[in-house]
Amino acid sequence: MKNQISKHDRIQMQIVTACNTIGVRAVQEYKGKGWRADVFVPELENPIAFEIQLSPQSLSKTLQRQSKYLRDGITACWLFENPVPKLTNERPDFPVFYVEEATDGSLHINLGTRRKLPLALFLENYISGSIQFKEYIITRPKQSVDLVFYEMYCWKCKEINHLYFIDTPFYSSCGAILTPDETLWDSNSSEYYPEIIELSKKIAAERKDLNLKLAIIKERHSYTVDKSYMSFGCRKCDSIFGDFYVMDAKMDHIYGPKDLIGTGEINLLKMSSLSIPHWCFPDDENYCSK
Ligand SMILES: [Zn+2]
Ligand SMILES: [Zn+2]
Description:
There is one protein chain. By secondary structure, this protein is of the alpha+beta class. The protein has two domains: 2-130, Endonuclease, Chain A; 142-274, no CATH class. The protein has six helices and 18 strands. The protein has a seven-stranded mixed β-sheet with strand order 1-2-3-4-5-6-7. A three-stranded antiparallel β-sheet has the order 11-10-16. The protein is elongated, with a radius of gyration of 25 Å. The two termini are 43 Å apart.
């Protein structure tokens, strides 16, 4: 219990310090009508009440307390230690953040589990309005990519070919990590993006030590499904490597040894926009869209 009390106080102090740093007034333990804020920041266009909640609190109880702040025209900002059950989406009208303590005792905020910020940095930027809610995530144009290459023997002519998959996540404009299924925004696998194909060729040319014999990626007709689609195919006889076999081989290597790895930077030709509501905080003021 003693630890919990001291952590609560430490967070409270950091909020006050952050307010001092950016020159706004902070009031501790402020009592309003039916609410009591750990720290209240009154002199803002939208006054903020900070609620530090280290013991678990249900979503309905939190919303009930939230409604009293809303009624009084105040934004309640919740700093939780434990996830709020049933709260799945980040919401603009309901700022909920999670405080995490590192082994050295320093406190951090998880921005939607995507990005971790030191608590002081988070507070200064949240209070000054630099952490903004955005409905969409935009991919960052420049991405650093790891390609993992693996061998596949042509089912027809037995020639050795190297295929690859992308082993790094893409990042949003605000540095959030996009999981692979989030980046599959169109039916094409990201392995077939022209800029990725170009990178694979560049790596093959520059990294002689890897001794890569790249399979050829192009649109081929599959008689099995009677349509044309982008595919890997044999560098010698051009036979198509079916999606199923490619997926299967890829899985073996995703979870197995990765011996042949090449890294490079690409410029995404197509920026993509994904419907992922989030608290956005880019390093360079390039916020994700509205
Ligand atoms: Zn072949
Ligand atoms: Zn963003």
